[in-house]
Backbone:
């Protein structure tokens, strides 16, 4: 089994990310398409993880002045519970550290995933809010 995780390199990588997000968010979680497909993808970097060249997980990175916001983290249902989500987040943290990109990594976690992100070193801040009809809370991982 060969696992590869990377910043997307070409149009096919990006299309794989978008298809994964469609499967997880629109089809599985019933997020309205207009909320998932927000037009912001060209302004972001994308992370793709494959197993034996099959796309199984993705995330989107949006740059702000002093932090990167991780968005649209998804793993196909059949691959959950195998550490793929952790691999994605740890890859992003290391990418930000190694390239001295920003001071922190932030994300809006669905409330059911708060413990998952806490286990990776993220700290909650702010109030709960609804995003695409799902309760979320903001979290941050301090780089420097």
Residues:
């Amino acid at each position: 089994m060969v696992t590869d995780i990377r910043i997307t390199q070409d149009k096919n990588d990006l299309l794989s990310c978008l298809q994964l997000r469609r499967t997880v968010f629109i089809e599985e979680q019933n997020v309205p398409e207009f909320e998932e497909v927000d037009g912001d993808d060209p302004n972001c970097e994308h992370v793709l993880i494959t197993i034996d060249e099959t796309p199984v997980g993705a995330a989107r990175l949006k740059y702000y002045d002093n932090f990167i916001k991780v968005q649209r983290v998804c793993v196909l249902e059949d691959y959950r519970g195998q550490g793929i989500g952790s691999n994605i987040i740890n890859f992003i943290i290391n990418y930000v550290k190694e390239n001295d990109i920003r001071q922190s990594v932030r994300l809006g976690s669905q409330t059911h995933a708060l413990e998952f992100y806490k286990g990776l070193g993220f700290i909650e801040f702010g109030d709960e809010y609804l995003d695409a009809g799902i309760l979320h809370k903001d979290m941050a991982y301090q780089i420097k």
